[in-house]
Amino acid sequence: MVDYFWDSCALIEYLNDDNDTDKKHNLQWFLNDAKNGKCKIHISTISLAEILPSRIVNGIYGNIDNFLSDFQGHLIPVTPNTNIMRMAAKLRDQQYQKFVSQASGYSSPRRLDSPDAIILASAVYLEKANGIKFEAFHTYDNGGKRRPEGGKSVPILSIEEWCRSDLNYDSIVADVIALTRQQPLHSNPQLYGV
Fold it and tell me: Which domain of life does the UniProt lineage start with (predicted)?
């Protein structure tokens, strides 16, 4: 059986009022695979705090509880423990800067958002402590979002581009980079509704 880890934005994309049907269909195919026993989808319980009830408009689910109930046993919730939280703090404490050009040097430093750091640390922890090998860490996060405390966050999909070669990073950063981080594109798309 294949294991995936979903970032909050994958769940939000599936449940929210965005009209990107290609994304929703791809996510639905993964969810169908989970229901059919072909894969497990792990999610951080932190994601539940990021899904705003007022944005849930998926016609099948009126609220997050209905969604979680429908996929009980197929979506595997991961509650952050002390080890995960310490790993997340290390991820956030790194200096992330992207190389711009020879003339400009590096960009202004950025931090990884707390929810992103906790979710990434959860995936790494499951691989290291539980021996789960994820086929992919699914996310749409490629930067551009504003951090609550100001500035922009480090993009999950391209975090390695924000790691300077002249700095030593904690080993947790290499573990995150080793995760296959990608947008959820199903390898065997079906006709929608079939």
Answer: Bacteria
Domains of the chain: 2-84+113-151 (3.40.50.1010)
Mean pLDDT within 10-16 = 90
Distance of alpha carbon 144 from alpha carbon 148, whole angstroms: 13
d(CA 44, CA 115): 9
Q: What are 136-184's pLDDT values in tens digits?
A: 999 999 976 665 566 788 999 999 999 999 999 999 999 999 999 999 9
Residue 30, class by beta-carbon neighbours within 10 Å (0-12 exposed, 13-18 middle, 19+ buried)?
buried
165: tokens are: 């070669």
**Using an 8 Å Cβ cutoff, are 44 and 88 in contact?**
no
pTM: 0.91
- Using left for φ > 0, alpha for ψ between -120 and 50, and beta otherwise, residue 157 falls in alpha
